[in-house]
Amino acid sequence: MTTETEAGPKNWLRERSELGICALLVVLGVLVLTDALRIPTDFAQRGPVGPKAVPILVGSLLLVVAVLLARDVLRGGRGEAEGGEDVDLTEPADWRTVLLLCGAFLANAALIGVVGFPISGAILFWGAAYALGSRAYVRDPLIAAGLSILTFVVFNNLLGVPLPGGPLMEVF
Amino acid sequence: MEQLLDGFATALTPTHLLMAAIGVLLGTAIGVLPGIGPAMAVALLLPVTYGMEPTGAFIMFAGIYYGGMFGGSTTSILLNTPGESAAVVTAFEGNPMARQGRGAQALAAAAIGHFTGGIIGTILIVLLAPFVAKHAVDIGAPDLFAIMVLAFIAVTSVLGASRIRGVASLLIGLTIGLVGLDEMTGQQRLTFGSLHLADGIDVIIVAVALFAVGEALWVAAHLRRKPFVPIPVGRPWLAKADLKRTWKPWLRGPVIGFPFGAIPAGGAEIPTFLSYVTEKRLSKHKDEFGKGAIEGVAGPESTASASAAGTLVTMLTLGLPTTATAAVMLAAFQTYGIQPGPLLFQRESGLVWALIASLFIGLTLLLVLNLPLAPLWAKLLRIPRPYLYAGILFFASVGAYAVNADIFDLLLMFVIGLLGFGMRRYGLPVLPAIIGVILGPAAEQQMRRSLQLSDGSLTGLVNSPMAIVVYVVILLIVFFPLIKKFLPKPTPPAAPVEEREKVDA
């Protein structure tokens, strides 16, 4: 009995984790409303409706929808998780993979300005492939480097879309 | 007509022809890849065109658009897992056909159906679009606002299982659309003093983040350790007996698909289903349905393709995207500083007609290239999943960075990508959010313009017959669940609604 009551509130929340979406909507709503109220309206206004009106409307609706969604969740409504070709919903979420993937993505953002795209892009690809379970320690980095350099050359030199080359490309 | 010929003259130059061919090949290749629908394909391939002049870029896009749509049906038939909502119905009959060793015929029925539907749809664009555009010029701000509200309501009500979640998604989109300088007064909204945010959040970033990054993270959390094995297939062909069964469904498809594509009712999902039911009813081989009836592939594919054409009419003449793919296309127009809408046919006449001409060329190339290449496309389905999703993140990053060469955009994409992850987890549809981002600012402008004309009186929003009609339609949609209660209960249709997975992007 005791274990059950201990797990009770935690389980209750886990069952209704969608309330987090309600919380997010409330935060957004408050953010939009406070920002809207701060906009000065005394000058530069053309027409009867100023820059405040729509944010106030959107912000209020966010709060209303948050309440309605919370009511739906508390009454047992659940958002249907999205299926897909490679999605297996019978397994619990694999947070390790997601975190590793986020890490690979952010590594690219952090490094692209320092070491240039050919290197940071390769790190992103290899890191993401590793996170998703690929363990070919020779093939993966080779594909990553090849893809990254090829993309750089195609975009930067052929398509006229500049990407940072970084120190690696300055050598050439 | 003359303009169309001029369009062909522009589109048939060697460079533009090459671009159309590259667009078709890229679009199909990306569209065939499992997990990538046409909206994500277009969003991921946008950066390829950043350095091009608009005409060439849009000719390429036309190819990517139809190619991406076509690619989805291959996945449906050979994997039984549609990459996009338009191809869901194709799997009903296409996959059983492939399992019986008739994959080649299923692919051919799909490819030719796609071609027929697309060509008829594009002819309808040629006939209808200038007419709509001409009359749309007279449409005032109140009417435009009403139509946009209709789009908001339709996209949240018609699609998805839960209205409240659709509305939540729409509001998230509208909030993102608010960020930046107010277009009429230059006041900063939701910028928090950041210079990066003062220009607003680029729609492309939002689209790539929600479709590509959100999807990659979501799949990563639930990655199927043993992906489906695609059914190997030879060169598509049709025997005479098959042709006899398919030509009517091919021609019926556009009748259902085109009008549905043009209205904001969620694109090809409903019309393909209607087409399937129609073909089943009209077929002489009713017993084969569910076990691989070729009509069930031919009809819906032609319908899907024609609905893609219908979508373009609304997008080009009214600036109103009715599907996720059209929303991304609209964003692409905006990156070139071109605003689709009633004036597009006057201001950018050369570009529009070249685009329409290249739709014909793209469809023809699609048929010519894809019939022989089908076995090759089928091989793409075997791509190791780690490489596939790593590649999606990789090209999403390239695209986001290339917009402004700014690391801030990568971080922004990451945050919105996490949002997309959460939305997938809790069943918030992605499409309303994208529509909100794109149409939100435009709707606000039209509303304020209307109220300016009426001096702040709310009657300014309903002072034209058209606006009133649109609002009546909106009320009908909103109160439909209530009305339904008073109607006699219809007998449930005997259509196979089994395992209709909800797929977006």
UniProtKB/TrEMBL annotation, chain A:
Transmembrane region(s): 18-37, 49-70, 98-130, 142-163
Domain of life: Bacteria
Residue stretches making up the DUF1468 domain: 21-164
Record bears the keyword Transmembrane helix: yes
InterPro entries reported in the protein's UniProt record: DUF1468 (IPR009936)
Keywords of this entry: Membrane, Transmembrane, Transmembrane helix
Signal peptide: none
Name by which UniProt lists this protein: Membrane protein
Organism: Lentzea aerocolonigenes (Lechevalieria aerocolonigenes)
TrEMBL record, chain B:
InterPro entries: DUF112_TM
Keywords from the UniProt entry: Membrane, Transmembrane, Transmembrane helix
Identification of the protein by name: Tripartite tricarboxylate transporter TctA
Cross-referenced PANTHER family: TRICARBOXYLIC TRANSPORT PROTEIN
Highest rank taxon of the organism: Bacteria
Signal peptide (residue range): none
DUF112 domain segment(s): 17-435
Transmembrane segments: 20-46, 58-79, 106-132, 144-161, 167-185, 197-220, 318-338, 350-369, 389-419, 426-443, 463-483
Organism encoding this protein: Lentzea aerocolonigenes (Lechevalieria aerocolonigenes)
